Each structure stands twice: as structure tokens, then as C-alpha cells.
Amino acid sequence: MNNNFDWRKYLIVFLITVCLFLTASFISNFFSEKKVDEMKSIQDNIAINILSSETQFSLLQESSCKYVSGSVLSGELDELGKKLEWSQTNLGDTDEVTYLKKYYSLLEIKDYLLMKKVSVSCGTKSAFILYFYTTKDNCSECEKEGMVLSDLRDKYPELRVYSFDYATDLSAIKSLLQIYKIKDTELPALVVDDSLLTGFHSVSDLETQILKSSKLQLRK
Amino acid sequence: MASIFNIILYVFIFLSVYVQVFFFVTFLENRKKIVIRNGGIKLDFYPAVTITVPCFNEEKTVSETVSSLFELNYPKDRLKIFLIDDGSTDNTWKIISKFSKYPNIKVFHKENGGKHTALNLALQNIETDFFGCLDADSLAHPESLVRIMSCFEKDANNMAVIPSVVVNAPKNFIQNAQKAEYDMGVYFKKMLGFLGAINVTPGPFTIFRKEVFEKIGPYRHGHNAEDMEIAYRMQKNHCKIEHCNDAFIYTNSPSSVKKLYKQRLRWIYGFINNTLDYKSVLFRKKYGNFSVFTLPMGIVSILSVSYLFGKIIYNIFDFLYSKLLQFEAVGLNFSSKKIVFDSFYINAQPFFFLMIVVYSSIIFAIILGRYMTKEKSLFSLNTLYFFPVFSIIAPFWLLKAVYNTILQRKPAWR
Asked: How many domains does chain B have?
């Protein structure tokens, strides 16, 4: 007879495999938490910088131009945006990622308002684009529009692009949507120099638009 | 939808890890039973053995194969050799006829009917209690037969004993990759031997007790994988198959991707179709680990590799599509920013760590295999060749074998 079936061994191997799975999940969670902590720390840093710039601007008014206009935060905001996007794809829409995304959107709005004020008061060369997007399933052109905006940002370092997920459950974003009368059927939507553009717009379309409203220079 | 794909992926990963852990636990349980002998051994009694060399167009290799049989450390009067020309169209018959002058060699010529018919002709003519086959593209180590026969002497329940098949003198990249695979196979065969769950009695030098054929009948076509079919039938009839890890057979491995593809297509097609033929033994406790572990493991491997391959293809197309979109959106003016390494973007999903477990187990299997085949060094570059070659090509023969099965198309022998 060659009957050598031992169910206990199958069970033990099953338990070991489950332990390996749990260990892998534990290690994975550990690294995910580290990533979330890293994003939190970047966000806190941005928040302090924005608050500091706002305070400085309020204190010194026009004379603060030489300090405030130099506080270019867009690099840090960009980095955070990319990390959040990566986290959403790879870590999933966890509560922490959703929370960080809301916080990020608020920081973007605050930075936008401050930089607009600085631009008007100090007469700096800058242009702003508010970009509203949603998931690939609901917006076939959003991915392409995102690429166009990345390309423009590369070309014009003083161009500030603020991206907002239409689906983010945040009253400040809802206010923006109300102000510019943006509907979910018209995405991607762009606000350039306070005028609303819906649907896909190419690099040259947007270039004409932003160059009209500001005197941006190409990156050397 | 993505989460469903992820769940399927993790189910396959779980099963793959389970299989590797099962092998590792089996190794820990039995490690002290692994014997690697050096030099010659003596038996209390040397039973007579008939070795059959079936040939079909083997003019280039058959002489060397027969010479390796002459070199066997086994009493010549206890060793019979049958050379069977299965309707070759080259000079095979002329070459093997020359050996007919030896008293312990018999030569046969028949119309081409496939390897199983050549072996059955031999079975009709044997007068010994033990029977084996040596493919005409393989060479036997001088101590291989006596070591295999010692396994029969040690355990009267052994109905067949299989050797360790290793690659003979690998020359190119493809053969070196196979070398690592065969080394790994030695470890897995040994573990399956401990589990009583071996599912193939390789053409190169498996030795059977003659009573096996009296009990279960002669060879069958077995979808061009007669050595697998006979093993399935033996397992179904509770005939024990043992692995003799220090009995080495050196086989000529395919030298090109095309030849390797054809060989593996035949093997996998044979596995799928023999498993379908013997589906009644699946998950039946009375057939032991063969039915609960070996066969499901093979099925899981085919499904996992096919699924992972599909996922990789999907990812490649997704990447190309996003590049096309990028081209449509911004033309060839892709980002000029420098790529800076940031550890943040290292994927640390459980998948990543579990794949480390699976790959480490495979490397461990190759190292153990090399240890059992008495390689001088336990580490070899072949291990590195193995992963890319088999990851890239294996899905193609697996999928083609599934496709052929669905369409009931039989692959050519060679």
C-alpha cells in the first residue's frame, strides 16, 4: 500500500503559510505606515511654510514681497501630489490616504489664494491653473490632460497647477466647484485666469491662454 | 474589478507558498534519510536486469549510450541489453546491429509505432525480474544501476526506482538554464519520493519490477508521455515509486529555444491530458499525496503561471497605452526632469515579500539539488539564467498545451 496521506501535515503547512502571509502583511503595513508618516511630515512642513508666508505677508504687506514671493512651495506640493497619487494606486483608498488627500487639497487652495495675493500685490510673473479631474472610468480624457499639465509645468517653472479630485468630499472643493459652476459631466475642467475651460485642451491651447494672461518665460 | 483580480492573484500566491512550504517541511522531516554515496557499493544479491534502449533516428548518440551501459558497475551476466530500432530512417539500425555480437545484447527492428510500442516489444521478450529503459540521448553513470538496485534490496515494497536526471555537458545559455532546472528537479523528485507522490518515471533509466507490468499492463501511448502515464497508473494501483538521488543519468538537453519549447509542450500536454484521463484519482485520500498534493500542485502551477503571464501582458499593454496617450497629449516632448531615486516608490505590498519567499524556496531547491548531484559548488550562474529563461518562455508552452488540449491537437514528438 502506498497510502501516505497525513492530514495533520497539510494542516500544519496551511498554518505556516497563513503565518507567512500575516508576516508579509505586517511588514507591508509597517512600510505603508512609514510612507504615510513621510507624507504627513511633508504636509506639515508645507502647512508651516504656508502659514508662515501668510503671516509674514500680513505683517509686512507690500514690503514683504522680496521674502514671500521667493517662497516657492510648488516643488514640495508637486512631490506630495505624486506620492499621494502613487499611494492611492498602490496602497488603495485607505482612510489615511483619503485624509491626506483632503489635507493636501486644502493646502493647495491655501497656497493658491496666497500666491494669487502675492502676485497681485507684488506684480510677480505667475500663472495659475485649477485642474479638476476624476477617475479614469468616469473621465477618459483626464489622464491625457494631466500629462499636458505636467508638460506645461516643466516648460514654465512659474506656472502653478493645482489639481483637485472632483470626488473629494471636502466643503472647500465643493465651494470651488460652485464658484466656477463645474459639473461632473464636463471633466476635465480647467480654470485659467478665472475663466472655465472644459474637456481636453492641448499644450498649445493652454500655452496661448496662459501666455495671454501672464508673461511667463520658458525654462532655460 | 481590480480587487477581484487581486484576490485571484493572492489565492495563487497562497497556493504557491503552500507548495513550497510543503516541500520544505518534507525536507526537514526527511533530511537525515538523504544518502549521497561515493564510490562503488556491493549488493547481497545482484538480480538480473534488462535495460532497453528504444531508438528512433538516434545515429549520433546511441553508441555512446550503449557504451555507458558497458561501463556500468554491475555483473555483466546479470545485465541484458535490448536495442530496439523503432523504424528509424537514418543509420540507427546499422549502428545498433554492430552490437548484436555481444552475448548480453539483443537487437530488434520494428516499424515505427512510438516509444511505448518499442518498450512493449521489449516487455514481451524479457526474462529478468527487473526492467528498465535508457533513452538513446542519455548516459548512465557507472554506479547508477547498482545504487538503484540497492533501493530495491532495501525496500521490497519499491515497485520502481527513478534516478536523478541531470543535464549532460551544457554548452549554451539555454542548456545552462535547464541545468539549474534539472538540479532543482532532483530536490523536488526526492521530496516527492518521500511523499510517495512521484508522477513521472523518466525515460532515462527508471528501473521497474517486472511484476508491475504483470499487475497493471504494458505501456500505453499516454499522449506522447508514456513515462508519465505509467507512473499515474502505478500510483492508482498503489505501486510504490522511489527516487534514488545518487544514481545519476546525464541527458542531452535541447540546445535551442525552439527545441526546448517543443519538448516542454509535449510534457505539459502529457501532464494535462494524463491528469484529465486520471481525474478520478484527484483529491481521493486513498491515493495518498499523489492525488492530494502532486496533481493539484501541477494544476495550480499551470493556472498560476497562465494568470501571472496574463497579468504581465496586461501591464505591458497598459504601459504602452499610457505612453501612446502621452505621445498624443504632448508629442515626443517627454519630461526632461531627471529621474531621482526615492525609496518611497519601492512597492512594499505583501505580494512583494511573498514572492521573495517563493523565489528563495526555488533557489534553496536548486542549491539542494546541486548538493545531491555532488556539484563542486553549490552556487552557479545557471541559477540566474534559469529565472529569465523559464519565466519568459514557460508561459508560452503552458498556454499552447492548454490550447492544444482544448482543440484536442496533439503535439509532434520532436
From this structure: 1
* H/E element, B5: helix B2-30
A51: Cβ–Cβ under 8 A, 6 or more apart, which residues? none
Its domain, for residue A211, covers 125-220
Give the closest of A16, A23, A143 to B21, CB-based.
A16
Is there a domain that residue A2 lies in?
Answer: no
Give mean pLDDT, residues A171-186: 85
Length reported for chain B: 414
Domain-located, residue B383? no
Q: What is the pLDDT of residues B97-150, one digit of tens each?
A: 999 999 999 999 999 999 999 999 999 999 999 999 999 999 999 999 999 999
Name the packing angle between helices A7-60 and B2-30 (round to 10°): 130
CB A190 within 8 A of CB A196: yes
Overall domain count for chain A: 2
pLDDT bin (cut points 50, 70, 90) of residue A2 is very low
Same domain, A131 and A146: yes
The pLDDT confidence band at residue A111, using thresholds 50, 70 and 90, is confident
For residues A72 and A86, state if they share a domain. yes
Q: Rounded to the nearest 5 degrees, what angle is found at the Cα of B140, between the Cα atoms of B135 and B141?
A: 165
Residue B218 lies in a domain: yes
Q: Is residue A1 part of a domain?
A: no
Integer angstrom CA distances of residue B299 from A5, A16, B291, B293: 19, 22, 12, 10
8 Å CB contact of A2 and B18: no
The residue range of the domain holding B147 is 46-255
Q: Which residues of B touch A204 (CB under 8 A)?
A: none
Q: Are residues A136 and A184 in the same domain?
A: yes
Is A181 found in the same domain as A75? Answer: no
Question: Do B253 and B202 form a contact (C-beta atoms < 8 A)?
Answer: no
Chain A residues with beta carbon closer than 8 angstroms to that of B352: 28
Rounded to two decimals, the ipTM of the complex is: 0.90
Asked if residue B314 is part of any domain, the answer here is: no
Q: Is the pTM of this model over 0.90?
A: no
Chain B residues touching residue A2 (CB < 8 angstroms): 196, 235, 238-240, 288, 290
Residues B335-350 have a mean pLDDT of 75
A107: distance to nearest CA of chain B, Å?
21
- Closest chain B C-alpha to A6 CA, distance in angstroms: 8
Q: Which of A102, A124, A146 is a domain's end point?
A: A124
Closest residue on chain A to B239 (Cα): A2
Residue to substitute from B18, B159, B237, interface A, most A β-carbons within 10 A: B18
Grid-cell match 545557471, residue found: B382
Kindly report the average pLDDT of chain A as a whole number: 82
What is the per-residue pLDDT for A73?
59
Contact: A150, B335; criterion CB under 8 Å? yes
- Interface contacts A/B by beta carbons within 8 Å: 96
Q: Residues B366-387: pLDDT tens digits?
A: 999 999 998 888 888 888 889 8
Residue where a domain terminates, one of A124, A146, A163: A124
Kindly report the nearest CA distance between residue A110 and chain B, in angstroms. Answer: 26
Shared domain for A104 and A132, answered yes or no, is no
Instruction: Quickly state the pLDDT bin for B159 (edges 50, 70, 90).
Output: very high
Is B164 part of a structural domain of the chain?
yes
pLDDT level of residue B1 (50, 70, 90 thresholds) = very low
Cα B314 to Cα B5, B75, B309, B318, B352: the distances in Å are 12, 60, 8, 6, 19
Q: Could B285 and A23 be called an inter-chain contact, meaning their C-beta atoms sit closer than 8 Å?
A: no
Instruction: Determine the distance in angstroms separating the CA of B330 from the nearest CA of chain A, rounded to an integer.
Output: 6
Dihedral sign of CA atoms A13, B232, B392, B318 in order = negative
Is A3 within a domain?
A: no
